[in-house]
Specification:
By secondary structure, this protein is mainly α. Helices cover 51% and strands 8% of the residues. The radius of gyration is 22 Å and the shape is elongated.
Length: 174
C-alpha cells in the first residue's frame, strides 16, 4: 500500500491514500454482518431441526461456522488496526516527517524512513535507512494467531464435512 498525502492546494481535501480512514467503518460493518451471519449458521447447524447435516457432520459444521466467525472477527480487528496506522501516517502536519509521534515505526524504531502495511499477514513493516526491513508490534500477536488458527480450523472442519458427503437430515413427514 502506498501512502498519498493530502493536497493542501485543494483546500485540504483528502487525496487517494487518505481515504483509508473512510474504510474503517465499512470494514467494521461488513465484518459484523459476516460474523452475525456465521453465528446464525452455527446455531442453525447446532440446534435440532434446523441443520442440513446428520451425526458428527452436524457438530463439525457448527464448529466450522464458529471458527469462521472467530477468524473473521480477529482478522477484521487486525485490519482495522492497520487502517488506523495508515491514517495516522497520512495525517500530515509539522510532526509527521517522516512519521507522526504515534506511528509504530517512530515509536518502536529509531530512524525509520518508510513503512509498508501487509494486510494479508496483518503486519506493519518499517524500512530503515540502510534498507533493512523490520516488523513492528502494531497488531498484537494474539490477534494474528487467533485469526490464522481459526481460519485453519474452519477450513479443516469445512473440508472434512464437504469431503465426506453432503447428506441431508431426513425430511420430517407431515
Amino acid at each position: 500500500m502506498t501512502a498519498v498525502a493530502v493536497d493542501d492546494r485543494a483546500g485540504g481535501a483528502p487525496a487517494e491514500g487518505n481515504v483509508v480512514i473512510f474504510f474503517v467503518p465499512v470494514v467494521l460493518l461488513a465484518a459484523c454482518a459476516v460474523v452475525v451471519f456465521l453465528v446464525l449458521q452455527c446455531l442453525r447447524a447446532a440446534l435440532p431441526g434446523g441443520g442440513r447435516w446428520t451425526g458428527w457432520r452436524r457438530a463439525a459444521a457448527a464448529a466450522a461456522f464458529a471458527w469462521a466467525a472467530t477468524a473473521t472477527a480477529a482478522y477484521a480487528l487486525g485490519a482495522v488496526t492497520l487502517m488506523l496506522t495508515v491514517s495516522v501516517a497520512q495525517d500530515g502536519g509539522a510532526d509527521s516527517a517522516p512519521f507522526p509521534y504515534s506511528h509504530p515505526c517512530r515509536a518502536q524504531l529509531t530512524g525509520a524512513v518508510d513503512y509498508e502495511v501487509q494486510f494479508h499477514t496483518l503486519r506493519t513493516v518499517c524500512v530503515l535507512p540502510d534498507g533493512e526491513r523490520r516488523a513492528v508490534r502494531d497488531v498484537p500477536r494474539t490477534v494474528r494467531t487467533v485469526a490464522a488458527t481459526s481460519a485453519v480450523c474452519a477450513g479443516a472442519l469445512a473440508g472434512a464435512v464437504w469431503a465426506t458427503g453432503r447428506t441431508r437430515a431426513p425430511a420430517t413427514g407431515r
